Amino acid sequence: MSVLDSDSALRDCYAQPIEMVQKKVLRRLDKHARAFIALSPFAVLATHGPDGSDASPRGDAPGFVQVVDDVTLLLPDRRGNNLIDSLRNVVASPDVGLLFLLPGINETLRVNGTARVITDAEKLQPLTAQGKVPTSALEISVREVYFHCGKALIRSDLWNQQKQIARENFPTLGRIIADQVAGIDAEAADANLQESYRSRLY
Questions:
Q1: What are phi and psi of 195, to 5 degrees?
Q2: Does residue 64 contact residue 73 with C-beta atoms inside 8 Å?
Q3: What's the N-to-C CA distance of the chain in angstroms?
Q4: Mean pLDDT by 10 residues, the chain (202 residues)
Q5: How far apart are CA 110 and CA 98, in angstroms?
Q6: Counting runs of H as helices and runs of E as strands, what totals does the chain give?
Q7: Which of 101, 157, 168, 172 is most buried as measured by Cβ atoms within 10 A of its Cβ?
Q8: What is the DSSP letter of 6?
């Protein structure tokens, strides 16, 4: 088995990126990045901490991530499972990555930078949703921002509604957890999850 364990070994296996790809990485949010974020209802947050790396889905109404200025974003922490893995990671190691998606658009937007967990009332108030102010938010200082081509989403055919998985073709989360954790009742877990979806999103 061959393992590529150095930058030079990796580069030997791949062609050099073309000039456009190298030059597209920006240090600030331009008008296109700002517009993409304003339209995006979903992002994936990547963090790293003492227990390793983590990727967490984040979503809300389009524009839920607030653009403060060309180098600053605010990402509200909506109600979840209270494990606070991402927040704990940021406290330990501030480097973060964000991948923004737009339904129906194959290109994505990547933002890398550093973050800190804030609880300032004046910054959290504008992030209110459904009458609920988030407990905290990530204030992200942008280091890199660039658009990513659509090859991955084209290959996956992600937005093709005809390829959506029917709900009955995959077990419910309650059933999965019951199979994984002794003593959990699948129907009760599903009922609790549905109630949380109805009344505990915010």
A1: -65, -40
A2: no
A3: 49
A4: 91 92 95 98 97 97 98 96 96 98 98 98 96 97 98 98 96 98 97 95 92
A5: 6
A6: 8, 7
A7: 101
A8: S
Q: Quick one: pLDDT at residue 144?
A: 98
Question: Is beta strand 95-101 parallel, antiparallel or unpaired with respect to 52-59?
Answer: unpaired
DSSP state of 40: -
What is the rounded distance in angstroms from the CA atom of residue 114 to the CA atom of residue 48?
A: 11
Half-sphere exposure of 153 (CA within 13 A, CB side): 17
The total of other beta-carbon atoms located within 10 Å of residue 84's CB is: 15
Residue with tokens 């979903």: 42
Closest CA to 117 of 59, 47, 20, 199: 47
Residue 177 carries which side chain, given as an amino acid letter?
I
Burial class (CB in 10 A: 0-12, 13-18, 19+), 117: middle
What are the tokens at 16?
A: 């050099």
H or E segment at 109? Answer: strand 108-118
Q: What single-letter DSSP state applies at residue 51?
A: T
Backbone angles phi, psi at 187, to 5 degrees: -65, -40
pLDDT, position 1: 73
Residue 21 is given by DSSP the state: H
Residue with tokens 């910054």: 123
Using CA atoms in the order 164, 44, 117, 126, what is the torsion angle rounded to 10 degrees? -60
